[in-house]
Design a protein that fits this description.
Layout lengths: L6 E4 L3 E2 L4 E7 L5 E11 L10 E5 L7 E2 L10 E4 L10 E10 L7 E7 L6 E6 L4 E8 L2 E10 L6 E8 L4 E8 L10 E6 L13 E3 L15 E9 L17 E6 L8 E4 L7 E4 L3 E4 L20 E4 L13 E4 L7 E9 L2 E9 L10 E5 L1 H6 L5 H4 L3 H5 L7 H8 L19 E3 L25 H13 L5 E4 H7 L9 E4 L5 E2 L1 H12 L3 E4 L7 E2 L1 E2 L6 E3 L27 E2 L8 H4 L2 E11 L1 E3 L19 E2 L10 E7 L11 E6 L7 E2 L22 E6 L5 E4 L5 H5 L7 H14 L18
Length: about 750
């Protein structure tokens, strides 16, 4: 795979036969490259594995193509298009309340309005010393004035820039909302400008949180929050009014508490100067009016009249289309990719082909966990998280792809990163190149032979389907969210990926409905159905996740910010939303560890007649003491049964893992008191459980509780007890004979 500049992404990750995909590609300008369609069968390159396998699809995509260098502009801002009412002459003031987060990071623009050649206009910015500064340009004459007072990080200030064309004066004002003893952070400055010309009497848009791009394409993006800015056609000399009024020479006033889910900023002045947001700055965040009395922005949005801008926000790379691919009408459902090639460099743009709209081609559907791929997209944990090597218990070997991601931050962030100002990342998008959504990518925590993660771990499952010659259809998380249970109609067995961690309410409802209707579900992973996500109802390809209360997370939301800006839903763990994964699949997350994986030991319950089908051809009581992810079947992230969290009382614990190291630790949501004894060799609840239970509609659920399971299936070219056990379950689940809930003689205790 490529670690060079040949990159690309698709407009969507799921299509039906006969659909068309738009491909957006960037490379060294003028270099030729080829594109091919391939089916990914097995994406793991581990020499101990079954072997990397792709099937070339004989389809002419129209190449060779000539590469075009396409750039990605990160950083969020707002833009208000030009209108005649904005062309204020004589006197103008721009006012806002701000909460800067990196005031000494360098120049950061708060407001900018410049004509096309930047010879005339006005700008309010934070200078390299961290002080508020105003700049006025009049036909090439540049006048600058600063307050000379450094802004404090994460403190609210009222700020203003005023220009008086009649008197020839430029004013800048900085007032702390809250006084800080012994801190001089209130400032004022005035400078003389040419008389008779207004820097605002031009035809140009008004920008917030960024400047127009300069010769070096630097927009001087602002990090921090802006609250309800407004424009007046009069001068402010040394103080700032708390609120503007309609009769106060009001030109525009934007209320950010209105239409929070949208990408629109609403002008309430009556002049219709509404604006739009670029690159998804964070909304539904506390403004200066938030006093702790309201924690739900949909109850009283006035507490949430701020927008948090970041210099590294990214929604859509916004590349031009390079070519299109018409998916053949007879192409079988599966996991495919448009493979870009230039010499030895390759880059894959994966997607799935679903069954035709009018029919199902298989009784089995594989649910590709694309929400989790988005959540981890371009994860830089190997270098960005200092404790990674301690957590893994080994040195981390960085790949060329790791280095490329590190040196190209414009590829965007994932839920496990922090913004440059240290704030949490709430939004994740698929409309950008993803280095770790690639067949052949080594995986989380780096290094040859280490844990296989996400997409390539899931190809251990698609490779298993191929090895046992079983047909399957594919749908994605996005399909499940958009269509609900309808996209699962007529399938008898649903098989999950290795790590379906991120789930929306619609997705969770669909799986509940599928099981309640008598569907059979095989959960072949760990740490599934853990975080609640909220896809945007209008913008394609983006999800929101605010990791409230607890759970394994890179950062916590701020006080009062636990509700999604896209939908108003309460966020965080599904467990905190009253729907633990145990109620769906019988097991839930209990621990994670990245040093080594362990085997399972069969329980007494595994001999129950209800499980007679499960262990055909398996003689040993210890299973899974091998694998491609940590050397065992139970590892990386572990799920266990717990009746108190919803594991059905009639569920059977078929087997449990043991022998985990003390680098496996209890999850934060289970650690009420941080006392000794919470490591894998001591805590009795650190275990992966294989669980089986029947449903009242004749269906059943089989869960393995481990991310490493799929890597163990692939061991010895799928000729092992873990693969056999999984096959036995699939074979029985495909049988039409209903499952019956019968009393069990087994006395397996399910720990709370």
């Amino acid at each position: 795979m490529s670690a060079g500049d040949l990159l690309g992404y698709l407009d969507r990750w799921s299509v039906h036969p006969g659909d068309t995909i738009s491909c957006r590609v960037s490379g060294t300008a003028g270099d030729p490259y080829q594109a091919n369609l391939v089916r990914t069968i097995q994406g793991d390159t581990n020499p101990d594995g079954p072997g990397y396998r792709q099937e070339h699809i004989p389809l002419d995509l129209g190449g060779p193509f000539m590469a075009q260098q396409q750039t990605i502009e990160t950083g969020s801002f707002a833009i208000v298009d030009h209108a005649e009412v904005l062309a204020v002459d004589n006197a103008v003031s721009i006012v806002a309340t701000i909460w800067p987060t990196t005031p000494q990071r360098g120049r950061q623009t708060l407001f900018s309005r410049m004509n096309e050649d930047a010879s005339t206009g006005i700008e309010l910015f934070i200078d390299k010393s961290g002080a508020l500064t105003a700049e006025c340009r009049l036909d090439g004459t540049i006048v600058t004035v600063s307050t000379g007072c450094t802004l404090l990080s994460q403190c609210w200030y009222r700020v203003a820039v005023s220009h008086d064309a009649i008197r020839g004066q430029l004013h800048v004002i900085q007032e702390p909302v809250k006084l800080h003893p012994a801190i001089s952070d209130r400032g004022y400055g005035v400078a003389i400008t040419p008389v008779g010309t207004s820097p605002f009497d031009i035809r140009a848009p008004l920008l917030m949180a960024a400047s127009p791009p300069n010769d070096s394409n630097d927009r001087y993006h602002y990090n921090g929050r802006i609250y309800n800015p407004y424009v007046l056609s009069r001068i402010l000399v040394d103080s700032i009014p708390d609120r503007p009024t309609v009769g106060d020479h009001l030109v525009a006033a934007w209320d950010f508490s209105i239409e929070i889910p949208s990408q629109r900023i609403v002008d309430v002045s009556g002049n219709g100067l509404h604006g739009r947001l670029v690159n998804l700055p964070t909304r539904a965040v506390a403004g200066p009016d938030w006093d702790g009395s309201c924690h739900v922005w949909t109850h009283d949005a006035t507490h949430y009249g701020a927008i948090h801008f970041h210099d590294d926000d990214l929604y859509d790379a916004n590349w031009q289309e390079s070519f299109r691919v018409d998916i053949p009408a007879n192409l079988a459902s599966g996991v495919y990719a448009v493979r870009l090639e230039r010499g030895r460099d390759t880059f894959h743009m994966p997607f799935c082909v679903r069954a035709p709209r009018a029919r199902r081609d298989s009784d089995v559907v594989f649910l590709l966990p694309t929400a989790s791929y988005m959540a981890y997209g371009n994860n830089r944990i190997g270098l960005d998280v200092p404790e990674t090597e301690l957590v893994c218990g080994r040195l981390i070997e960085l790949t060329d792809q790791d280095i490329f991601m590190q040196t190209h931050p414009e590829l965007g962030l994932c839920f496990y990163d922090l913004h440059n100002d240290g704030s949490p990342v709430y939004y994740a998008s698929r409309l950008r190149p993803m280095m770790d959504f690639q067949p052949g990518f080594i995986g989380k925590l780096g290094g040859a032979g280490s844990n296989v993660w996400q997409f390539n771990a899931d190809t251990h499952i698609t490779g298993w389907f191929d090895a046992i010659d079983t047909s399957f259809d594919v749908v994605t998380d996005e399909d499940l969210h958009n269509e609900g249970v309808d996209c699962l109609n007529d399938y008898r067995v649903l098989v999950t990926g290795s790590h379906p961690e991120y789930y929306s309410a619609s997705m969770r409802d669909a799986l509940d409905d599928f099981i309640e209707r008598g569907g059979r579900m095989m959960y072949l992973g760990g740490n599934g159905f853990y975080w609640r996500v909220s896809p945007h109802p209008e913008l394609p390809g983006v999800i929101e996740c605010r990791k409230s209360e607890d759970g394994i997370r890179a950062a916590a939301p701020g006080p009062g910010e636990y509700y999604a800006s896209f939908t108003g839903e309460y966020t965080g763990l599904w467990r905190r939303n009253g729907r633990p994964p145990n109620t769906l699949v019988g097991v839930g997350m209990v621990a994670q560890g990245f040093d080594r994986s362990s085997p399972y030991i069969r329980s007494e319950a595994s001999n129950d007649p209800r499980l007679s089908f499960m262990f055909e051809g398996i003689e040993t009581d210890i299973i899974g003491d091998y694998g491609l992810s940590g050397g065992g079947a139970a590892g990386i992230e572990l799920d266990a049964a717990n009746v108190e969290l919803g594991t059905p009382h009639h569920a059977l614990i078929v087997a449990s893992s043991s022998g985990h190291s003390d680098l496996y630790l209890v999850t934060p949501e289970d650690m009420l008191d941080p006392v000794p004894g919470l490591g894998g060799s001591e805590a009795e609840n650190i275990s992966a459980d294989i669980v089986f239970f029947e449903t009242s509609a004749g269906g059943a659920v089989f869960s393995v509780g481990s991310i490493a399971w799929a890597g163990s299936m692939a061991w010895n070219n799928y000729d092992n007890a873990i693969a056999q056990l999984t096959y036995n379950v699939l074979n029985r689940f495909l049988n039409n004979t209903p499952f019956n809930i019968t009393p069990s003689s087994s006395k397996t205790e399910i720990l709370p």
